[in-house]
Amino acid sequence: MRRADRLFQIIQVLRRSRKPLTADAIAAELETSKRTIYRDIATLIEQRVPIRGEAGMGYILERGFDLPPLMLTPDEIEAAVLGAQWVTGHADAVLSRAAQDLIAKIADTVPERLRPFVLEPASRAAGSRKEPDRIDMARTRTQIHEGKKIALRYRDEHGRHSERTVWPIAIGYHEAVRILAAWCELRTDFRSFRTDRVIDAVYLDEKYPERRDLLRAKWRRSLVWEHPSDV
Predict the structure, then answer these.
(1) What pLDDT, in 10s, does the model give residues 64-87?
(2) What is the 8-class DSSP label of residue 69?
(3) How far apart are CA 126 and CA 138, in angstroms?
(4) Residue 96 to residues 91, 111, 175: CA-CA distances in angstroms?
(5) Which fold would CATH assign to domain 3-61?
(6) Using CA atoms, how far apart are residues 176 and 129, in angstroms rounded to an integer?
(7) What is the pLDDT of residue 70?
(8) Mean pLDDT of 90-95
(9) Whose CB has fewer CB within 10 Å in the chain, the N or C terminal residue?
(10) Vertex 119 angle, CA 114 and 120, to 5°
């Protein structure tokens, strides 16, 4: 690995860690020596990269530091393109177009030598056949971000109709269908609703009473994602 690439990778390793990392840990990940890491970190500090710590104690990258956008490695480019391909084949039309635009922007921005990793990637995500949505997915995502309720008319797997007021939490993209995870006021519990079974949706201005982060944490603990239910 070239030294310039290694310096960049050290910053990446520190940026994704929430706790101090020792030179041993960094050296093991980058497959180099601890002495080399000491020298590289000293160089980064001389270049005013805000790294705190010392030998034997560990290093941490202070908050607020960032690198110029799209300084991507080949593996990062391949990961981004693979993810965008999957979104193109699985998400709704708005996100699908956004994913295609993302690939085009990456191709236009990266250096010429890295462009084949965008246009001719070694990995590829296949598309999928999915049931059409009966709900405005872009508007649903907006309600999630704003913490606002949705009134649903819904048909379950047995064909029974019901009316629900839900607090939307997240959208799950499965192979053939999409799932809206939400707190259901009717059931006073978390439920998952297949978007192709929604008959009608009214997007309310009323915010749900709980903080989004707290509601999301409770939902994760409930394991509703692993055990979807639409009753």
Answers:
(1) 666 555 567 788 888 999 999 999
(2) T
(3) 23
(4) 6, 25, 15
(5) Arc Repressor Mutant, subunit A (1.10.10)
(6) 6
(7) 52
(8) 87
(9) N
(10) 90
List the alpha helices (DSSP H) in 23-163: 23-30, 34-46, 74-90, 93-109, 115-119, 137-146
Distance CA 61, CA 189 (A): 41
Tell me the per-residue pLDDT of 102-126, one tens digit each, with 9 for 90 and over: 998 888 888 788 888 888 888 787 7
Closest-CA residue to 169 (of 221, 93, 91): 221
**In a 3-state reduction of DSSP, which class is residue 197?**
helix
Cβ of 141: how many Cβ atoms within 10 Å?
Answer: 16
Q: Please determine whether the domains at 3-61 and 137-222 fall in the same fold group of CATH.
A: no
What the block records as the tokens of 228 is 């979807």
Buried b (16+ CB within 10 A) or exposed e, 124-135: ebeeeebeebbb
Residue 203 parent element (H or E): strand 198-207
Answer whether 180's CB lies under 8 Å from 193's CB: yes
The pLDDT assigned to 113 comes to: 82
Residue 228 has pLDDT above 60, yes or no: no
Structure tokens at 93: 């039309």
Domain spans in the chain, listed from the N-terminal domain onward: 3-61, 74-119, 137-222
Check residue 62 and report its DSSP letter: P
CATH number listed for the domain at residues 137-222: 2.30.30
